[in-house]
Design goal:
Layout lengths: L2 H5 L1 H4 L4 H8 L4 H5 L10 E3 L7 E3 L5 H5 L1 H4 L4 H8 L4 H5 L6 E2 L8 E2 L1
Antiparallel strand pairs: 1-2, 3-4
Length: 111
């Protein structure tokens, strides 16, 4: 540990990891502890770390759970439109909602 931490042990040194996480990473407590969460697993979130697309399933960081209105979305289209507009089609992929054809009289749908 750096000397500034040992010089101020009360603020930086903890006997339990949970105490350290609570003090310094309260906004991301579960991830700090290494706890996998499935909170809000039914909502879509932007994956900045791996694929740079919207995903669902509860793998989002805790800060996204703490601000659901900002980061979490009911549909993949909404998520991709907000966070990956520059590559919307790639983000939506094959899981996007069907869009009605613009051909008059057509009953076809396409992704």
């Amino acid at each position: 540990e750096p000397s500034y931490m040992t010089a101020n042990a009360v603020g930086y040194m903890f006997t339990h990891k949970s105490d350290c996480c609570q003090q310094h990473y309260n906004w991301n407590y579960e991830e700090c502890l290494g706890i996998s969460t499935t909170a809000n697993s039914n909502l879509y979130y932007p994956d900045w770390e791996q694929d740079h697309i919207c995903k669902k399933g509860g793998g989002q960081p805790q800060y996204m759970n703490n601000a659901i209105d900002v980061w979490m979305h009911d549909t993949i289209n909404d998520c991709c439109d907000k966070h990956f507009k520059y590559k919307f089609d790639e983000c939506v992929g094959t899981t996007g909602a069907a869009v009605p054809s613009t051909t008059p009289g057509s009953t076809n749908w396409y992704p």
